[in-house]
Amino acid sequence: MRKIGLIGGTFDPPHLGHLVIAEEAREACHLDEVWFLPSYIPPHKDRLVTDSDHRIAMVDRAIKGNPLFKLSLIEIKRKGRSYTYDTLYELKRRYPEDEFYFILGADMVNDLPNWYKIDELAKLTSFIGFKRPGYTFKQPEEVTIIPVDMPQIDISSSMIRKRINQHRSVRYFLCESVKEYIEEKGLYED
Asked: Domain Cytidyltransferase-like: where (predicted)?
């Protein structure tokens, strides 16, 4: 039986904060692997996201070099809105012997009671919730949350997109190979 961490998101673009969260969860919870799950259409975002082919290529570049990080295209291939319940249901069907742990930031932990089919989802996975300084999350009754301390890293994909659009440096926010891909494809510019 493997213990597999799952980190979902648009990864538009994937940044060093995503990688630090994945590695901290892997180490703190003794996970065998962490799978990155780019969403096709995130249920909680209304803005258009960058084409999935670009986001897949960027995640692939970001995790290259860490054999314990994997790219899963389950949500991309399914198309439509990417609900975590649907993803976990399918993963448990495909890998019934494995344990899955869904990795979340503190802000998402507090929103868990509003997630699609949260009661059924809680039977399929445990959640790894990252604590942030100055941010308290509440433990929802219906779910198991494993709290993990997070080093303070204040990077977001939206901040990176904005900096690129303003022709500002994103060095040290992204893996160099992701930065080069964005420049090569002209992503996030007007």
From this structure: 6-163
